[in-house]
Design a protein that fits this description.
- The structure is a single chain.
- The longest helix is centred in the last third of the chain and has 42 residues.
- By secondary structure, the chain is α+β, with helices and mostly antiparallel strands.
- The chain is 59% helix and 16% strand.
- It contains six helices and five strands, in the order αβαβαβαββαα.
Length: 171
């Protein structure tokens, strides 16, 4: 990798650290290519991205970003998972780590709050942004459904009474 490529990589990583809602740092030692491919596809499905990083370049990219407190985590074979949804990267990382012991969650950062391994696992147990939106829509939609049912019930009862009255006169 020449100097221009390194400079470009540092700039890309700096953008990631500036824009991501959450970053999870992992060790991936021993993962096969197939396992890494599976991990990346699970990350994409969750709305996150997974990237193997060079520690020295990553530490350079971390300087002057909100994620700078996690620089100490970058030793050994590290990779980062990041997403715009604060929960997606953590949920996908922890979920894959449960299935495959070769992926080790070291810690991460959400906003300016540094997270240890337990903090990332706690974050992963929270509902995602999409799940929260679905719950809110469900809560808003339920009263409207009930109101529609209540307003239609008297009309239905009235129609049944008229129908019964009409059939009793015909008999």
């Amino acid at each position: 990798m020449d100097r221009a490529q390194k400079t470009e990589l540092v700039a890309e990583l700096k953008d990631v650290f500036q824009d991501a809602a959450a970053v999870v740092v992992t060790h991936y030692s021993g993962l096969t290519v197939a396992e890494m491919t599976d991990l990346r596809s699970q990350m994409r499905e969750a709305g996150a991205q997974f990237r193997v990083t060079k520690n020295r370049l990553t530490k350079l990219a971390l300087e002057d970003t909100p994620c700078s407190p996690i620089a100490h985590l970058f030793t050994g074979p590290t990779a980062i998972a990041y997403s715009d949804d604060p929960v997606a990267a953590a949920k996908a990382s922890v979920g894959f780590a449960k299935e495959n012991e070769k992926l080790i969650v070291l810690g991460g950062i959400m906003g300016e709050t540094e997270l240890d391994e337990g903090g990332v696992k706690s974050l992963a147990s929270m509902p995602s942004l999409d799940e929260l939106r679905a719950k809110i829509v469900g809560m808003i939609n339920t009263p409207a459904t009930r109101i529609a049912g209540v307003t239609q019930a008297p009309a239905g009862q009235l129609a049944r009474v008229f129908g019964a009255y009409g059939s009793s006169e015909a008999a």
